[in-house]
Amino acid sequence: MATLLHVDSSVFPGEASSSRSVTAAFRRTWEEQLPEGTVIYRDLATDPVPHITADAWSAGYAAPTERTPEQSTAFAARMKLIEELEQADAILIGAPMYNFSIPSTLKAWLDSVLLLGRTAGEAPSAQGTPVVVVASRGGSYAPGTPREGYEFVQNYLEATLKGTLGLDLDFIVPELTMAPRNPAMSELVPLYEASRKRAFDDATAKAKELAQRLTA
User: Where do the annotations place FMN binding (predicted)?
Assistant: First the structure.
């Protein structure tokens, strides 16, 4: 049966996190559609991936017989993450915007799974795998908004997930999530509510679509 790789990176737990709430809705629908499927779950906030080290990086360019013990240990940890990526039939990532970019824990995960000659390069090993990214943010950085130029989440992830790993990328973008808690944004609450509803609807629809595609 189908395997879903689910990666969350929000520092906030459960419903306190917009990205986690939407990825949870996607996953519930996925499991309803594929009750015998497998879910590999990575919570990068509670169980962070180590930031890339010189040993972990250089081991990817050294023959196995030439690696030091430290390189071998570090590379084994990278390979576990890479193999999870490769065995997934679909990928779900929660990527909230922190200070205009992705959480450092998600960047650490990406640094580990990006390996030239395997997951990256002329024939990426996970090429074509569908990936849905829930890119939540407290404000709006959509085209035409005052802070359009501060959008470094979708731009970066498109270059990394689609351009480098060759994944089939789709975004769900819950925005204005700070509106209910910031009095200065009170007039934006209706737009936030519409965005939130759209995000949950999209999560349900995309989960069903992917599940049906994989079982067709």
Answer: 10, 17-19, 97-100, 136-139
Q: Which residues contact 18 (CB under 8 A, 6 or more apart)?
A: 10, 96, 136, 174, 177, 196, 199
User: Look-up: residue for tokens 């769900």?
Assistant: 172
pTM score over 0.85: yes
Please indicate if the annotation marks 18 as binding a ligand. yes
10 annotated as ligand-binding: yes
Tell whether residue 137 is among the known ligand binding residues. Answer: yes
- Compute the Cα dihedral for 202, 205, 207, 209 and give only its sign: negative
Q: Are 152 and 103 in contact (CB under 8 A)?
A: no
pLDDT score recorded for residue 216: 75
CA distances from 166 to 105, 123, 126, 127, 162 (A): 21, 8, 7, 4, 5
Residue 4, burial from CB neighbour count under 10 angstroms (0-12, 13-18, 19+): buried
Amino acid of residue 164: T
Strands 168-172 and 90-94, sheet pairing: unpaired
Read off the pLDDT of residues 116-154 as tens digits, 9 standing for 90 and up. 999 999 999 999 999 999 999 999 999 999 999 999 999
181 known ligand binder: no
Measure the CA–CA gap between 194 and 21, rounded to whole angstroms.
Answer: 15
Q: What DSSP designation does 163 have?
A: I
Measured between alpha carbons, how far is 86 from 131 in angstroms, rounded to an integer? 12
- Rounded to whole angstroms, the Cα distance separating 162 from 117 reads 16
17 annotated to bind ligand:
yes
155 marked among binding-site residues: no
